[in-house]
Specification:
Blueprint: E1 4-9, E2 12-18, E3 28-33, E4 38-43, E5 47-49, E6 56-59, E7 70-75, E8 82-87, E9 93-96, E10 100-102, H1 125-136, H2 151-160, E11 165-168, E12 171-172, E13 182-184, H3 190-193, E14 194-196, H4 197-201, E15 211-215, E16 222-225, E17 228-231, H5 232-238, E18 243-247, H6 253-267, E19 268-272, H7 276-279, E20 292-296, H8 300-316, H9 318-330, H10 334-337, H11 342-355, H12 361-373, E21 394-398
Parallel strand pairs: 11-15, 15-18
Antiparallel strand pairs: 1-2, 1-5, 2-3, 3-4, 6-7, 6-10, 7-8, 8-9, 12-13, 13-14, 16-17, 18-21, 19-20
Helix pairs in contact: 1-6, 6-8, 8-9, 9-11, 9-12, 11-12
């Protein structure tokens, strides 16, 4: 149960996952076909073992060549159910998949060593989730943090959501079985806490979300095969998401939190609802203020590209950017601001923050700028965040 096999459908080979174990003498098996998102009853004759290119395999004794019983997969499965195998001392041969055996097997329940211990808390992921929620105009209960972010609750909300799905957490990747890759949620065990690619691809209803953001390490990685990468990002695409933002390596927690905030501010803007002036009181909120709505300024790909450009501009000279931002927030002329030291400008931003209403967007920005200006390593030289390690891991799949 849980092993990946290749199944043939309409002349093509697809990836299937066994939904139950196979007993001796059994001729049928239940398989979930990943690419089709369907469960099917199939004959065992229609199922072939799955091997990745580059994987070492053992060959049945009856088919050994010149005493060799080991080879390397160097070509994908062909229409006759054969793999191309390269032998150490002889030429390549095409051998039926059922005559090959994997040299090493990994139990479906086994965790990768990196995640065999309790996961450490991500210092900035909670702040990231709250910031994204504020930008999207969500109520506090709509942002699942800590113990609220359980696997059943996240799956329930994903199934009914028509908005953005943003997951800021730990990511884990299984390069041998991509369907086991996923992200960590709240739970007492691996099975109860991991949202896997297999679970996403197997959802009963298609997602209605325009964007899924996988703000986690390795969220775009998975099992590599001829047709691409099978992992969490691909699973969300198969499940119906229009666009997916994912990462290709371990990402910095703090840098990711800032980059995500910059992306959403680039992608969305707040404006008064259409017809607010004409409709008068009907367009007003309970406090008499006009209703506001979020507007998408550009495509996700364009927004991400522009966000990265802004990121590099900001961190190529961080103090200059922060000074300019502080002047703008404080309503000061730049010439006046230049008379202030970095420390005095930080204090001025903090004093203005204290005077703001708690939870206001202006107050939060003033506090952020004040903290950034007080960093000891801030200088006119390039910030460490200009290095591709901090921003180039993320990419966009979709439109």
């Amino acid at each position: 149960k849980g092993d990946v096999v290749r199944v043939q459908h309409e002349g093509r080979w697809f990836h299937g996952r066994l939904l139950s174990g196979i007993l001796s003498g059994q001729s049928q098996c239940a398989v979930h076909v990943e690419e089709l998102g369907e469960n099917r009853e199939m004959s065992l004759d229609e199922c072939m073992p799955y091997f990745r290119v580059g994987e070492t395999v053992a060959i049945r004794a009856s088919l050994e060549v010149l005493g060799e019983r080991e080879g390397t997969i160097c070509g994908d499965l062909d229409g006759d159910g054969k793999y191309e195998v390269e032998m150490a001392r002889s030429q390549r041969r095409r051998i039926c998949a059922k005559h090959l055996a994997r040299r090493m097997r990994v139990s479906p329940s086994r965790l990768l060593e990196r995640y065999s211990n309790p996961l450490k808390a991500l210092r900035f992921s909670e702040e990231e989730a709250r910031q994204v929620g504020d930008i999207l105009g969500l109520e506090e209960d709509d942002v699942l943090i800590g113990d609220k972010a359980t696997l059943p609750e996240v799956q329930r909300r994903m199934a009914t959501s028509t908005g953005v799905i943003h997951l800021a957490t730990h990511g884990l990747v299984d390069p041998q079985v991509g369907g086991r890759s996923g992200v960590a949620l709240c739970g007492s065990s691996h099975g109860e806490a991991i949202l896997t690619a297999h679970a996403v691809a197997s959802m009963e209803c298609m997602l209605q979300s325009p964007l899924v953001v996988l703000s986690a390490c390795d969220s775009g990685r998975g099992e590599e095969f001829a047709e691409g990468v099978l992992g969490l990002a691909r699973a969300f695409t198969m499940a119906g998401a229009d666009s997916v933002v994912m990462s290709l390596w371990e990402v910095d927690d703090h840098a990711t939190q800032r980059l995500m905030k910059l992306f959403y501010e680039t992608w969305l803007e707040v404006e008064d609802a259409d017809g607010a002036e004409a409709d008068g009181a009907e367009a007003d909120g309970a406090d008499g203020e006009a209703k506001q709505v979020l507007r998408v300024k550009c495509s996700v790909v364009e927004a991400w590209t522009e966000a990265v450009r802004s990121w590099l501009t900001i961190h190529s000279d961080p103090e200059r950017h922060l000074r300019a931002r502080a002047y703008e927030l404080l309503g000061m002329e730049i010439t006046t601001g230049n008379d202030l030291s970095k420390e005095d400008l930080s204090k001025a931003c903090y004093k203005a923050y204290v005077a703001q209403e708690k939870g206001s967007q202006l107050g939060d920005e003033l506090l952020d700028v004040s903290k950034d200006l007080s960093e000891e390593d801030l200088s006119h030289e390039k910030s460490k965040y200009c290095h591709p390690l901090y921003w180039a891991a993320f990419g966009v799949v979709g439109v």
